[in-house]
Amino acid sequence: MPEPRRLCKTVLLGGALLLLVGLAAYCSLQHRRQPQLEAPGWDVAELQLNLTGPRLDPRLPWQAGPSLGRSFLHGPELVNGQLRIHREGIYRLHIQVTLANCSSVWTTVPPKATLTVGICSPATHSISLLRMNFHQGCTVASQRLTPLAYGDTLCSNLTMHLLPSRNADETFFGVQWVHP
């Protein structure tokens, strides 16, 4: 009688092993068929002003890189000095601009001096996200949460005749992806 028991045990063990291998193969195939989600991590950028000559355009050009100190770019990209988003979701954006050669004690900032941040491209998504008036001061700063789509390009515009400070502690712009 021990022989049929041993045979039964071997058959059951072999069947369980085949079932386990089959299940592993099925799961592996299903995993390969599923579309891969976006890369893990957070898209983030902290940018410095890249003004090297006279301003010919209201848009402020930005730059990032390890050689510049505290500026960096992980995820989004810079296109002609403007920030293009590569991951759809909710972002926290922040900006601070200080005017060059400006003193809060004796300021000649015109009352209409304005800094705006908006989506400038694609044209179908074009919208203003932040609008700040200098109110006779030398610095404006703001932040907000806003949904951004893949391909949105953010532009920051400063009233044309004003000159922003090139000091990275006084003028900077950044975004941080916070939620899908």
Automatic annotation (TrEMBL):
How does the protein's chain sit in the membrane according to the entry?
Answer: Single-pass type II membrane protein
GO molecular function: any one? receptor ligand activity
Q: Does the keyword rRNA processing apply?
A: no
Record key words, sorted: Cell membrane, Disulfide bond, Glycoprotein, Membrane, Signal-anchor, Transmembrane, Transmembrane helix
The protein's superkingdom reads Eukaryota
**For this chain's UniProt record, which GO biological process terms are given?**
immune response; lymphocyte proliferation; T cell activation; tumor necrosis factor-mediated signaling pathway
Q: Tell me the SMART domains matching this sequence.
A: TNF
User: Does this entry carry the keyword Ubl conjugation?
Assistant: no
Its main subcellular localisation, reduced to a broad class, is: membrane
GO CC terms on record? Answer: extracellular exosome; plasma membrane
Q: Where is the THD domain?
A: 43-178
Protein localization: Cell membrane
Q: Which PANTHER family match?
A: CD70 ANTIGEN
Q: Which family does it belong to?
A: Belongs to the tumor necrosis factor family.
Subunit description:
Homotrimer.
**Main role?**
Expressed at the plasma membrane of B cells, it is the ligand of the CD27 receptor which is specifically expressed at the surface of T cells. The CD70-CD27 signaling pathway mediates antigen-specific T cell activation and expansion which in turn provides immune surveillance of B cells.
**What is the name of the protein in this document?**
CD70 antigen
